[in-house]
Amino acid sequence: MFQEYDIIVVGAGHAGCEAAASAANMGSRVLLVTMNMQTIAQMSCNPAMGGIAKGQIVREIDALGGYSGIVSDRSAIQFRMLNRSKGAAMWSPRTQNDRMLFAQEWRLMLERTPNVDFFQDMVKGLLIENGKCCGIITGMGIEIKSKAVVLTNGTFLNGIIHIGEKQFGGGRTGEKSSTGITEQLVQLGLESGRMKTGTPPRIDGRSLDYSKMEIQPGDENPGRFSYSNETKPLQKQMPCYLAYTNDSVHEILKTGFEKSPMFAGRIKGLGPRYCPSIEDKITRFADRSRHQLFVEPEGWETVEVYLNGFSTSLPEQTQYQALTMIPGFEKCKMFRPGYAIEYDYFPPMQLNLNLETKKIDSLFFAGQINGTTGYEEAGCQGLMAGINAHLKINEQSPFILGRSEAYIGVLIDDLVTKGTDEPYRMFTSRAEYRILLRQDNADMRLTLKSYEMGLASEERIRRVSQKTKDTTEIIQYFKTESIEPDQINDSLALLDTHPISQKVKMFGVLSRPGVTILDFALNNAAFKEFILRFENESVEEAEILMKYEGYILKEHEVAEKLVRLESIRLTDDFNYSQLTSLSNEAREKFTKVRPRTIGQAARISGISPSDISILMVYLGR
Asked: Across 258-262, 321-325, 427-431, 515-519, which has the greatest mean pLDDT?
């Protein structure tokens, strides 16, 4: 019935979709196996993509030839660039999305991708021969062979849903959990754990009084995620709204605490630190009289609303009573209550940096199975797992991004080197080279790498080359051309900054806080004519590079020094026990993690500089 596939991807969430697309676009024959063909790329939680640090990841996925950016743009109902008041390294794009359109666009893109086949069934086991994964066994008992397997099971592995004192098996509301894989992998020597996440109630938007809330519109000039020419900025947008809890809401929620699965100890897994449930918030931050809630529409046509910030697993009646005390929600109707879900994951220190398991050859993990949370974190892991599975079966070197090359590199290095015992979420603060890893330059950082692997198109390379050329030309203009006082002082006056008294280089004026490239066009016809030749992306890129030139150069220097440590290789069979000068902790952690380089070894938690010095001396460095 089934041919032998190059790669089988298990699960069709954000990680699975990106894994299938990347491997297929590189030339592998891929089978995407999902328990429900109608929920491919389902937005299980909030209907949004991007945000702080996550927006950078979506742009990186797009630059590497993934689909998340294009799908997000095509299904967007609102676009905002967050953190505009801060430095460019902190700017983060975010879209509000039409949930149904998002899933539809993802499925259509996969169906239009040559080399991707689909099959609907649960996967209950893996085919393992001589320590190598060579296929799957489905719930119907069908064996399907492959050269590699990518597991992207999300929250479905032995998933349990909690609502108050009720609990039932499920990987998502209305969908059954997946069993069998965890037990088999544990028997094969892998370590598993439990994690927890949650989701808020969904509300009928027709029952809300938006006049009692604060409106939160999209950007006046909306951008987009994708660097390709396949999408266009939004012409119309839908607003979100801000609402707030109060003491009355908190008191009602407290009445349900004795039935809370979290407080009663029925949930054993750790939840996301930076996305706590509402009951957790009012307990941990008891001094706060209110908490902010984001009222997010779920699409152009639907009335369903997602109440971001009100994740809960309290009894449904308690949830409803508390909701009616929120201004604007007095007459609210609940489509479904919030719930918590507990599921299996595998601590990611059991992986190599290419996301292949250390114990089982040709078996790759991506997404929440590795202990992460978030669509974007899952999507980038899926992309990298798909790429590396293809490279593995074709006996090519793995594709690994460094910490100074991409947020994706930071995320995977954090997981594999440091591990995680709580749901991992990306933040800009996790990236020590965030001035280099901005959202505006992901195409310039990564498109060439993608093109060399056969993912990025000729058109993509042409656009990046043109952007680089244009950016260089604009910077050169500012560094060589001067400006007269009467050409810029009116703009400086509007910005409440000191005027110039003589002709000066344009570059020096631009370096002032608040001054932008467009300020030079107010009374300078020649410059206005010059700058209008370029696309907005190139103008913005040039401005950022000029304003942050000193910081960028300094960070490049630091990155280059540390990259030298990444060039000092360590073999997988290195015998750390022979280095008696190492601390016991260092020997134990080096043996467990098996770092690939001195740089990775230095980032392992608990490793001291003296431990690294001992390694360097032994290696003759």
From this structure: 321-325
Q: What is the 3-state secondary structure (H, E, C) of 390-445?
A: HHHHCCCCCCCCCCCCCHHHHHHHHHHHHCCCCCECCCHHHCCCCCCCCHHHHHHH
The Cα angle at residue 139 between residues 134 and 141, in degrees rounded to 5: 65
Handedness of CA 509, 514, 516, 518 (dihedral sign): negative
- What pLDDT is recorded for position 463? 95
**At how many degrees (to 10) do helices 14-25 and 375-393 cross?**
30
* Tokens representing residue 6 in the block: 């190059």
Record the pTM. Answer: 0.93
Higher pLDDT pick, 445 / 268 = 445
Tell me the H-state helices in 255-361.
Answer: 278-284, 316-323
Q: Which residues pair with 117 in a beta bridge?
A: 31
* Cα gap 193→270, rounded to integer Å: 10
What does the buried/exposed string (b/e) look like for 249-262 if buried means 16 or more CB atoms within 10 Å of the residue's CB? bbebbbebeebbbb
For residue 149, what are the β-bridge partners?
8, 363
Count Cα neighbours of 164 within 13 Å in the Cβ-side half-sphere.
12
3-state DSSP assignment of residue 113: coil
C-alpha–C-alpha distance, residues 548 and 232, integer Å: 29
CA–CA distance, 88 with 315 (Å, rounded to integer): 43
Band of residue 1 on the pLDDT scale cut at 50, 70, 90: low
Average pLDDT score over the chain: 93
Name the least confident of 26-30, 262-266, 274-278, 589-593: 262-266
Strand partners, 138: 123
Does position 271 have pLDDT exceeding 80, yes or no? Answer: no
User: Could you tell me whether strands 240-244 and 292-297 are parallel, antiparallel, or unpaired per DSSP bridges?
Assistant: antiparallel
Give yes or no for a contact between 253 and 96, defined as CB atoms under 8 angstroms apart.
no
Distance of alpha carbon 298 from alpha carbon 48, whole angstroms: 9
Residue 264 has pLDDT above 70, yes or no: no
Which positions ≥6 away from 580 have C-beta within 8 Å?
Answer: none
- On the question of pLDDT at 147 being above 80, the answer is yes
Q: What angle do CA 299, 305, 311 make, to 5 degrees?
A: 130
Distance from C-alpha of 570 to C-alpha of 541, rounded to nearest angstrom:
38
Determine which helix (DSSP H) or strand (DSSP E) holds 125, and give its type and residue range: strand 123-129
